[in-house]
Amino acid sequence: MTLRNAPDRLRQLAPAVLLVSAATLLALTTPSQPNLVDFHVYVLGGSALEHPGTLYTFAYSGQSPTQPLPFVYPPFAAILFYPLHFVPFAAIGLLWQVAMIAAMYAIVRITQRMLGGGSQSEAMLWTAGLIWLEPARVSINLGQMGIFLTLAVLYAAYSRRWWVSGLLVGLGAGIKLTPAVSGLYFVGVRRWAAAAFSAIVFFATVALSWLVVGDQVRHYFTTVMGDTSINPIGTAVNQSWRGGISRIMGHDAGEGTLVLIAIVGTAVLAGLAWCALGSGSGARDQLGSLLVVQLFGLLVSPISWVHHWVWVAPLIIWLWRGPWRDQPGARFFGWGWMALTFVSVPSILSMAEPSLWQISRPWYLAWAGLVYLGAATATLAWMVVTGRRLRAR
Fold first, then answer.
1. C-alpha pair distances (Å), 187 with each of 150, 195, 196, 217, 236
2. CA atoms within 13 A on the CB side of 251
3. How confident is the model at residue 32, as a pLDDT?
4. Which domain holds residue 379?
């Protein structure tokens, strides 16, 4: 095999490469602790429906490395997970992890389509590499639902059917509130029907939940939803402005002045990046615009664990294969995100923490904990500068 036909040979071996990569990842993560700890919470949340009033009082401590973990999701999520507690956990857990890897492949395929095309073999190779990045790898280890929610929102943006788009985002928000930020995308691209229907579907999940669990719905939206005290805000794996500023200040910054300034500044920067991706004579970059909204949501949310940053996967593909792939800086940011997430800087920094609850730390560890925040802010700024340069031509 010559160097010239090496890429063709690699594409032919893509299914085997993906299979080996996925099998290796599962072999390494399955025995590790805390394996599928969050998925345990989901399933137990479903089973709690058989014991009225216990959905937000139980806490899972079987594999939790720091503290018992309560169910902190909307009641609709527990309804969806209810059937799973009838299946042996070892079997459903493995199927859940395999499904997450399959969902990562689907994320890559939809990303390719939003960028104009790409082969299945290339998607397999992308998936084989992307599942080793920190957001995906941690999600697969914990059994988190973020990969599925990312897929749902991505397909919602890709689909031109308003009811499909609204249904997916509304259901996603009903399961976990974070997909609700995608409504900003629908409003920005003037997909009013999709935006309205997503809100209707979300409220429908709330209504259904009320029929099933009654007053637990009120308890969630008035108490559990806004209670950040049950989470270690200052740990390095919380890559939000609140987390980053708290680590620098040495205490929970809450909704203080610095956090509000960071949120407002991020909103302005994201707005400028949005404009940059839709200015000039060309059509709006749909994927790039969606990524702007998701980066904004990750930065301003009180809690953005590293597994919430699955959006880095389509971001890397957009940087390398998108319409701005030949612009100065695109490759730099693509490789930069790949390196940061593969090395898993936040997870490494968290190992230096005596306790997840200890916010104070040496200044160099506190500032190093801004790694995703700094990279996301720099990426948005690059979008603004690149858009202005292209518009000036």
1. 19, 6, 9, 28, 33
2. 2
3. 77
4. 230-393
